[in-house]
Amino acid sequence: MTAPLDVTGGDTEATPEAVAEEAQAQRAIQGRSLGRIAWMRLKRDKVAIAGGLVVVFLILVAIFAPLIVGWFGHPPNEFHQEMIDSSTMSPKGGTGISSDFLFGVEPLNGRDLFSRVVYGARISLLIAFLATLLSVVIGTIMGIVAGYFGGWVDTLISRTMDVFLAFPLLVFALALVGVLAQFEQSLGVKGDTLRILLLIFVIGFFNWPYIGRIIRGQTLSLREREFVDAARSLGARGPYILFREILPNLIAPILVYATLLIPTNVLFEAALSFLGVGIQPPTATWGGMLSDAVTYYNIPHFMFFPGMAIFVTVLAFNLFGDGLRDALDPKSSR
Amino acid sequence: MMKRSGAALLAAGVALTLGLTACGGGGGGNEAAKDNGGSSAGGAQDAFNAGIDKVYNPSDKKGGTLKMAISEDWDSVDPGDTYYALSWNLIRIYGRSLVMYNPAPGAEGRKLVPDLAESLGTPSDGGKTWTYKLRTGVKFEDGTPITSKDVKYAVLRSMDKSTFVNGPTYFNDWLDLPKDFKSVYKTPDVNTDQAIETPDDQTIVFHLNRAFGGFDNFAALPGTIPVPKDKDTGIKYRDHVIASGPYMFDKVEPGKQYTLVRNPNWDPATDPNRKALPDGYEISLGVNADDLDNRIISGDLHVDLAGSGVQPAALGRVLSDPAMKARVDNPTSARTWYTSIIGDVPPLDNVECRKAVIYGADRVSLQNAYGGEFAGGDIATSLMPPSIGGWKKLDLYPTGTGDAAKAKEALTACGKPDGFETTMAYRSDRPKEKATAEALQQSLAKVGIKLTLKGYPTSDYYSLYAGKPDFVKKNSIGLATNGWGADWNDGFGFMSQITDSRTIRAAGNYNLSVKSPEIDALIDQAYVETDTAKRDELWAQVDQKVMENAFVLPSVYSKSVLVRGKGVTNAFVTGAFDMYDYLAMGVQQ
Question: Does the interface ipTM go beyond 0.85?
Fold first, then answer.
């Protein structure tokens, strides 16, 4: 038994298109895996590649935030009152942008916006990635189980998904984060760690049905396929079929929807921080910075930089995710 | 060469424009003065603080509609159910209390003058009994004469805190009420003459459960504005309050709009205090705060009813443009923003550790957190603000950017030379308090005091979080942002609720940290003292003790940046409420 992804026989209907386009590939018709074909398609999609590069760049920025800030900025929570006009409380010269403060400073306390945007990337991406991971794990397990076993298991899980999808997520998240944060002692963690864990849990836990539904649908069609029948006739049991036969075939949709879920989660985290239940100050988050900036709408750079950071992140992930989908699943209509 | 002349040209251009605007402003002012027909010209000259301690554009001309707006809504227009300074200020246009604050600029405005009563109260029985005589010929809007029974009914009704949850509880606390009296609605037949007597239609006598020298301040509460018993509809009375003042409600759309028109049954002969200049008032509710600022700047609105100053976004605009700054008044309020240093939480139970917090704090960054020198206020050195009688400037702690050496010294004396950790609570929906917490965290970190910040919602801040001692101890909240404004400008009105440790209950406390038997004893002395000067002196001592014991870290004596509406007359900031006097203001014709 071989893993379907490495097989050339099963899904050959995808290859002719690639073959037709690449003249010199005529001779090398065999021995090319689905993954390689997808990679070839992805490489040709300039927009997706650009999105991917930005994503890599953002991840590097988040990882090396202390280094970057050390070179180009100031500690993110450090006050710079000397940059503030003492009567109007706005930055001297309007924005305070200079070679010393690349993005200018915040009004009132003169904190370095560049450093705060860079550090904000850490929180945003960390929460978005881990929350997505949580959603994907729960969603995949639930979806695959529901799709494979069917019957009352499917009914139960599908209805649960419906309930979750019908939930007023934002309102519920607001309440939940607010309430859970009060039980610090009993939860054993506190401060930013607690908040980050809470946000990951709330965002991740309530987003699983989206991915769960897709996985369930895919599983429904996969379980009728010949290789599953073959495995079953050779005596393979449920768990083996689920995780060794079906799951590898689901890697593509999982990858695509995870990539597309990340920007949603970036936005959701920003919304929660904006509404004041996110990370506690003074830790910088993009949503929290936007929320602070609303009062100072006359000082646009304060809103512009964190806003742009969110915009670029979401756009990059979406472009990359779309490209990935096209590459992995050429049959899907745009 | 080219560059230079270009710059010079630009500079000349700027100078020219500035000159033009200055001329324009001056011209407008002169015109306005002419319109006044000789009533002291020059008052209409736009200038920074032209409405502080003097009247801007004085006028006796009647007519026009005064347009007011507010970004939210306030508790109620019902005189028995309101606790907002803006409401106590506004209520004088439609209601007449026994005594009122003099509609005059600055400190004059803090003086009490008789309104419905012929004179201020006459104390007897050592200050336990207070008698007022009502003026004759005063009528409700429907023409019925106002009697002392209407005043008595209004006071008794305002004490029903289950119906009217908002108002102050001074009458509940101080009147000598019979035990079986619950409220005018539940026990209407109980004889309450032992608390309030009405021997005839013009006389009302208050009996207190203990002597109180400052009862005239109680008589100035909106609770003494007469309410006709047969028109009282309980909580629904707010939909149509029966006017006793010069204006009555025309349209009432709760949460949206009030309009008031002249009350035909108000007789100026019975009222020496009110000029009643505008023909009516239009009050819009729920206007976006930034939009409201813009509309006042453009002249579309006359007054921001909230009276707390412009939003941060408008601040730069009005302060940096000289023509706009000339329309700004910048009064200091009887309000202090401070941080309570809570001694229930170790190691802050040691006075030296509390002092270390004050020494280590960067007082300038705290001032900036509240909005800087104009919108925030002057750096406070004590809990009591300067406009309170008896205030003395205290100089116990430095007010610079933090004194690390002294803080270290205090920390060593406290036995924590390397500092300590504690939690700071603040109201998460108040950006200024969030900024305060962040500023304090920054400056205290430098002396080794590590703060964890925790935001709580304003609505439950006192009832569930910072004002609940159990919660505070359990969560080790050593510091909590706080602020207090005076109900009226004397020591009792400002200090009694926030420094008396005996007022501390299981929850809902405003006094978060001041716990000292010594201070309680001083407060007891102040209560019974009938001589104003001596009483003021005692409250000043309370203030001193609070600071000596480092119970609070004061940030600023609150100031606000108010923008004078275009075309207003008779505008000034009253010392009673530290906002424009809504009773005196008129509209340019």
Answer: no
Contacts of B440 in chain A (CB under 8 A): none
Which residue from A33, A9, A51, A57 is spatially nearest to A325, judged by alpha carbons? A51
* Model pLDDT for residues A231-282, shown as the tens digit of each residue: 888 888 888 888 888 888 888 888 888 888 888 888 888 888 888 777 877 8
Which chain A residue has the Cα nearest residue B319?
Answer: A88
From the list B208, B120, B221, B102, the residue with the least C-alpha distance to B527 is B208
Q: Does A273 touch chain B (CB under 8 A)?
A: no
- Residue A96, token pair as written in the block: 């305070």
* Model pLDDT for residues B81-93, shown as the tens digit of each residue: 888 889 999 999 9
Listed by start position, the domains of chain A span 33-328
What distance separates the 2 farthest-apart alpha carbons in chain A? 82
Q: Which residues of A touch B441 (CB under 8 A)?
A: 77, 282
As given in the structure block, the two tokens for residue B224 are 């003494």
**B320:A88 CB<8 A:** yes
Containing H/E element for A19? Answer: helix A15-21
Is B498 strand, coil or helix?
Answer: helix
* Residue A30 burial (10 A CB sphere; 0-12, 13-18, 19+): exposed
First to last CA, chain B: 53
Are residues A87 and B428, on separate chains, in Cβ contact within 8 Å? no
Q: What are phi and psi of B199, to 5 degrees?
A: -60, -35
Distance of alpha carbon A90 from alpha carbon B320, whole angstroms: 11
Q: Is B254 helix (H, G, I), strand (E, B) or coil?
A: coil
Find the largest Cα–Cα distance for chain B: 94
CB A121 within 8 A of CB A65: yes
Q: How far apart are CA B197 and CA B208, in angstroms?
A: 12
Which DSSP state fits B487?
Answer: S
A40 touches chain B (CB under 8 A): no
What is the rounded distance in angstroms from the CA atom of residue B113 to the CA atom of residue B101? 6
Determine the residue of chain B that is closest to A292 in CA distance: B431
Q: Flag if B438 and A109 touch (Cβ within 8 Å).
A: yes
Q: What is d(CA B168, CA B282) in angstroms, rounded to the nearest whole number?
A: 27
Whether B18 has a pLDDT exceeding 80, the answer reads no
- Domains of chain B, first to last: 30-61+288-331+561-584 (no CATH), 78-237 (3.40.190.10), 332-559 (3.10.105.10)
Q: Cβ contact (<8 Å) for B314 and A88?
A: no
Residue A34 has pLDDT above 80, yes or no: no
| Mean pLDDT computed over B444-455 | 90
Q: Given this model, what pLDDT does residue A294 score?
A: 83
- CB-based contact A88 B316, cutoff 8 Å: yes
Q: What is the pLDDT of residue B571?
A: 92
- Give the three-class secondary structure for B477: strand
As a whole number of angstroms, the distance between CA B480 and CA B502 comes to 20
Beta strands in A22-125 (DSSP E): none
Vertex B553 angle, CA B547 and B557, to 5°: 95
Best mutation target, A77, A78, A79, to test chain B (most B CBs within 10 A): A79
Burial class (CB in 10 A: 0-12, 13-18, 19+), B134: buried
**Amino acid sitting at position A13:** E
Other C-beta atoms lying within 10 Å of the C-beta of residue A72: 16
Does residue A293 register a pLDDT over 80?
Answer: yes
pLDDT range class, residue A332, cuts 50, 70, 90: low
Q: Count interface pairs A-B at CB distance under 8 A.
A: 81
Under a CB-based contact definition with an 8 Å cutoff, are residues B238 and B81 in contact? Answer: yes
Domain A33-328: state its class.
Answer: mainly alpha
With pLDDT > 90 as the criterion, what percentage of chain B qualifies? 50
CA distance A59 to A184: 30
Does the pLDDT at position B511 exceed 60?
yes
What is the rounded CA–CA span in Å between residue B553 and residue B158? 36
pLDDT at position A79 = 85
